[in-house]
Amino acid sequence: MDQAEQLRNIIKAGAIGHNKPLARVITVTSGKGGVGKSSVAINLAIQFRKLGQRVVILDADFGLANIEIMFGAVPKYNLSDLIYKGKTIRDIITWGPMEVGFISGGSGITGLSNLNKDYLTYIINNLSELDAIADIIIVDTAAGISDTVLEFLVASEEIVLITTTEPTSIADSYSLLKALNRHPKFSKEKTLVKIIANKVNAVKEGDALFEKLNAVVGSYLKIPITYLGGIPRDSQLPKAVMYQMPVSLKSPAAKSVAAFERITVSIMEPETDQIVPKRGVAAFFSRILSGKIV
Ligand SMILES: Nc1ncnc2c1ncn2[C@@H]1O[C@H](COP(=O)(O)OP(=O)(O)OP(=O)(O)O)[C@@H](O)[C@H]1O
């Protein structure tokens, strides 16, 4: 059996399910920095935990340590230690508040093309254990359009795009979707793209933002997008960051927290007209780590 076949078997084994459904991989991204992507990732994670889901956040914003700062947890190892130093998936997960798991991306996954296929298969096999550890994996990407971000997005079954009402943020969100649409590995049919409007001053503002974005995305890119809702501008959110705590735990009565709750419930609702293409962790990482194998 060659390596490609071995890898396909790992993915197939996951897909058949070892008595355990595959983890749902949700990638949180934004067209520009500072719109609240990491805040959303962390607070959705806490809310998913409150609904009984086991959650692991993968910080794929390589080089920046936003999530770990907001999380107040310093990871001992990171993804690079798994890839290059033989650490296992369980070694590299740091457990934070409410037992949300956290994996730091470390310095990234560059140079992977230099690894041999046997080794890549080993890494993906190791990472695929996450399917048994978590129900939901939240991937927090870097902001903006880069090859690495696009690799993560095309590997995702579900993309949550954070945007604000600033015209630059809307334009950058459109540009990100346009770049994604051009990517040879992107499949409109197999990816759900969901929008969150952050830092809105009123519900209507978020609704209008989505309508505007949906109109251009629908006409020019023909990517179906759905709206998860708005998160109000809330001074409790930056305050909680100062305490290195998610606002959902620091100030549960804050107005942004009610929005996080609503959005999480809506993500958990069964999709009516769209099928969530759960592919699991092995498929996700194998797409990122090497289009060369499968
Ligand atoms: N709904 C909100 N109301 C008020 N402030 C917010 C809100 N969401 C995020 N912020 C604040 O905006 C700033 C940027 O948030 P965050 O770091 O989560 O953004 P980001 O998009 O992940 O940034 P980066 O691109 O740098 O990783 C932080 O100070 C955060 O507290």
UniProtKB/TrEMBL annotation:
Gene Ontology cellular component terms for the protein in this record: cytoplasmic side of plasma membrane; cytosol
Keywords: ATP-binding, Nucleotide-binding
Claim: Nucleotide-binding is one of the keywords in the record: yes
Domain CobQ/CobB/MinD/ParA nucleotide binding: 26-247
UniProt xrefs under InterPro entries: CobQ/CobB/MinD/ParA_Nub-bd_dom (IPR002586), FlhG (IPR033875), MinD_FleN (IPR025501), P-loop_NTPase (IPR027417), ParA/MinD_ATPase (IPR050625)
Residues the record lists as binding ATP: K32, G33, G34, V35, G36, K37, S38, S39
Tagged with keyword ATP-binding: yes
Pfam short name (any one): CbiA
Protein's GO biological process: negative regulation of cell division
GO MF entry, a single one: ATP hydrolysis activity
Protein name: MinD/ParA family protein
